[in-house]
Amino acid sequence: MHAEMSAELWNSAVRVLDINWAGDHMVPSRRLYPHQWSWDAAFIAIGLAYVNPTRAWRDLRSLFEAQWPDGRVPHIVFDPATAEADYFPGPAFWNVPAYGNRAARGSTGIVQPPMHAIAAWEVYRHAAAHGANCAHQARTELQWLYPRLVAQQRYLTTDRDLGRGGLASIVHPWESGLDNSPAWDDSIANVPADLALLSRYRRRDLDVSDAAHRPTDLDYARYVGLVLSYQAGGYADHGLLDRHAFAVECPAFNSILASAELALAQIAGVLGLTAAAGTHRDRAGQITAAITRRLRDSATGMFHALDVKTGKLSAANCASGLLPLMLPDLPAAMVEAIMAQLRSPRFGLPVPSYDRTAADFDTMRYWRGPVWINVNWLVRRGLLVHGFRDEAEDLRTAMIRLVHRNGHFEYFHPTTGEGLGAPAFSWTAALSLDLLADRSVPAYAKAG
User: Fold this and answer.
1) Out of 2.40.10.10, 1.10.357.10, 3.30.70.3270, 1.50.10.10, which CATH number does the structure's domain 38-374 have?
2) Cα separation of 64 and 77, whole Å?
3) What residues are labeled active site?
4) Predicted TM-score (pTM) of this structure
5) Which residue from 168, 172, 160, 170 is spatially nearest to 219, judged by alpha carbons?
């Protein structure tokens, strides 16, 4: 890889992160996403640590200052400096009760994938490599974050185990981070679509983005309706299956959940909590076993979303079904089956968000075909965990070239590489730094 190209990409990524810093948190992009997003903060911290570790820790702290008493970490923490009219759905729509540190900065009532323990461990690893003083400061940050990360995991593995099978359920497509993925098509079809809601609640995303790149009005009406349904029950999870139309076990969400337990085991070790570290490793194994038991289609070798209400697996082959590759205890035969899918015409490198051979593959629309850097970063992590170093390096090179050639966009056309969605997107910039630094081998990876 040319040193000039690497330097150009590094410098452009740093500029994006400088532009998007909002004082005590990072916004994903200035125009389309003017608040703090949950799993974005985790991906951003991983790369931001290379150039400003103080901001990386502050971003994570800022997010967890909005944690609910039940342990959930909201998927958006709102910036009070942004007017309600500038983003929908904003704090007034969510109407989340104000308590604790959330009184000044409102939040949503739903969650996103729990990437944060992974991020905290990666930021710590980076600090520890820079000497004793940096490691000491980072250990202090871990001490603050650790009980809050544990509470987040406890909420997801207990209150959100709606299927009682050992996995967390998402109760809104937004919680997956993969908003309009075909993985939810069958389940979301059972949600009433009241288009009149879009007259009452006007979309703001289409004011600043191309409608061809975004979820449809039909999808959006269902998204709004699901929030209102969850809100009507006070955002409580007890008895939710009886009153809410959407509950799905996502293979990507739960693979991240298990990986977070492994990261917590590492963090607990640093903090001298030996017994807790063992407990985290055991939980990771239990979640991995539940994923293989509940979400795998033996006919395809792929992992699929499970509709908890109907008990049916989605037939869609989505990138989310590749992410159990992150799990070090995944049986070898299942690893090989994922690799066969990854090497097939359905996917390839870099990985699109959906099966390239599907009749409804859409090269432009959000999670229905485009390439996303964060998902490919997670796929690469899985390749490294299982010793597929050549493919991991091919993927790293492909991602770096894609972003260098087209810019730090939210996502990319899966054929031409054209940048789509929001420009100057924070996690694309941050993960570019991590890819350039090439330090992303997990400490708990299998030898290979």
Assistant:
1) 1.50.10.10
2) 9
3) 179, 410
4) 0.94
5) 172
